[in-house]
Specification:
Layout: E1 3-12, E2 20-22, E3 26-30, E4 45-54, H1 70-96, E5 101-102, E6 109-112, H2 124-128, E7 133-136, H3 144-147, E8 163-164, H4 166-169, E9 184-185, H5 188-196, H6 200-218, H7 224-242, E10 248-252, E11 257-261, E12 263-264, E13 271-272, H8 275-286, H9 291-309, H10 326-352
Parallel strand pairs: 8-9
Antiparallel strand pairs: 1-4, 1-5, 2-3, 3-4, 6-7, 10-11, 12-13
Helix pairs in contact: 1-6, 5-10, 6-7, 6-10, 7-9, 7-10, 8-9
């Protein structure tokens, strides 16, 4: 069994100032490479991640058919496996903590200008004379490959990342605001343990949910309606798995009119799909079942349905809109509440699921 250790540079939107390691799966800690680029103006904070994988689990990819291409195919297979491992860990951390962890998965090209460390009268003329350059979104410096070579987990000397009581964590400054350091809930080890113990089928479902949530984070400011929809889809992925054994019998297979179902209308008693009912039941089981919680679930699902079926968009999502009203503020709050509801749902599902 050949275990390979990988060291990469990833990013967070709040600085990591301590170390967190989960067993022999992975660890993250502040970047401690002398020549690594830094900027006090950046809001993509570089950090180190180290992880391991078993070479026996690498899926063979044959991108090219020629015999002389075997080494290329091997390189593609290993790189793909390493990338997928990185996606898995960063999405998991982003969902069960209050912070987005990410890497530049695709090289994005755009016109750019450099941002000086200082913007003052002395360099104003120089700045005004800048011209745009066609550039790649890439974190690179000389000897980066050499600096990232490891044969085992490193033992850097940093304080442990602070752990916040879980009961407070997802309510405690979920938006980045002026927060200066990444912290984690104090049950993170337990959540990690349950995640890495999932069966292959369960992990496939969970990873789909994590992907939907991470999409919601990445779109949070730029495509708010799609972000909201992604958050609800994150929960619905788990809901669908939770109720996977529910049966619906159709009277007509063409129009899908329902003959029998495990869910019925509260008013008339007729069988229904019960999509929103399943959504609430899942959250009652794994998050909270109070009257206020039910109101929140109903409101979030109503907004999701409006976005999906009526063309409704969150304020400012299409055209610039400076008419900030109480409704605008309420929708922004619901957007943040949907985000945190996802985090609580995934975390609790992992710990409590049967």
């Amino acid at each position: 069994m050949a275990i390979k250790y990988i060291k990469n540079i990833i990013f967070s939107q709040v600085e990591v100032t301590g170390i967190y390691r989960y067993k022999d799966e992975f660890q993250i800690y502040p970047i401690n490479i002398e020549n690594a680029p830094k900027s006090k103006n950046a809001n993509h904070f570089p950090l180190i991640i180290e992880y391991q994988y078993n070479e026996e689990n690498v899926k063979e990819i044959k991108a090219f058919d020629g015999k002389e291409d075997e080494s290329v195919n091997e390189m593609i297979s290993k790189t793909s496996h390493q990338t997928n491992r990185l996606i898995e860990i960063t999405n998991l951390l982003s969902t069960i903590s209050n912070f987005r962890f990410f890497f530049y998965r695709n090289v994005v090209m755009s016109w750019t200008i450099p941002i000086p460390e200082e913007n003052n009268a002395e360099n104003r003329e120089e700045i005004n004379n800048y011209s745009s350059n066609w550039s790649a979104q890439l974190y690179y410096y000389k000897n980066i490959v050499k600096d990232l070579q490891i044969t085992a987990f490193s033992t850097p000397e940093f304080k442990q990342i602070e752990l916040i009581p879980r009961i407070d964590y997802y309510w405690y400054e979920p938006m980045y605001g002026n927060k200066k350091e990444v912290d984690f809930p104090n049950n993170i080890d337990r959540v990690m343990e349950k995640y890495f113990a999932l069966s292959a089928d369960e992990k496939k479902i969970c990873n789909s949910s994590l992907h939907q949530f991470s999409n919601g984070l990445d779109l949070f400011k730029t495509m708010k309606s799609l972000s909201f929809f992604s958050f609800v889809s994150c929960i619905e992925t788990l809901v669908n798995y939770e109720f996977r054994n529910d049966k619906v019998e159709f009277q007509c297979n063409d129009c899908k009119s329902i003959k029998s179902s495990s869910h019925t209308c509260n008013k008339c008693g007729k069988p229904i799909w019960g999509i929103s009912a399943k959504f609430r039941e899942f959250l009652f089981k794994y998050v909270a079942s109070s009257i206020d919680a039910k109101k929140l679930y109903n409101k979030i699902y109503t907004i999701r349905s409006q976005i999906t079926h009526t063309g409704f968009l969150l304020s400012g999502d299409n055209f610039l809109d400076w008419d900030f009203t109480d409704k605008t503020e309420a929708l922004s709050t619901k957007h943040a509440e949907a985000m945190q509801l996802c985090r609580r749902s995934v975390s609790n599902w992992l710990i409590l699921k049967e």
